[in-house]
Design goal:
The chain is built from 3 helices and 2 strands, in the order ααββα. The protein has 133 residues and is mainly alpha-helical. The protein has a domain of 88 residues: Non-ribosomal Peptide Synthetase Peptidyl Carrier Protein, Chain A, CATH 1.10.1200. A hairpin with a 2-residue loop joins strand 1 and strand 2. Helix 2 packs across helix 3.
Length: 133
Amino acid sequence: MATTSETTKAAAATAKARAAKLKQHATGHGSGFMKFVREQGVVGLAIGLAIGTEAGVLIKQLVGSTITPIIDLIVGKGGLEGFKWTLNIGDRTGVFTVGTLIDVLIRFMAVAFVVYLVVHFLKLDRFDKKKDA
């Protein structure tokens, strides 16, 4: 029959073995995750997302501060949002808010043009080209 001392030592050895196995298992997953992060460029993607978000805010402000007032000068305050086309058929009426659609399209084109100018003048497109080996 085992003594209390031997039982305690055996329990401690079993606990150490389980702890070592658990640590090895956890480390294996951790290193696999870090390998994934390195190989897939997750950090670069996160940085690009953060910079892209702020660039979007900057471009929206640039368009809102410079191009939108020009559009308002041409078509009037409030843009084309008030331009509607009403269709009456009998006692039914349909209202097409084409002014809002045109206004959104103009603003989209303005944003796309500003993005093009920024990419072109800062030569940011060269970073996206594959290097010839």
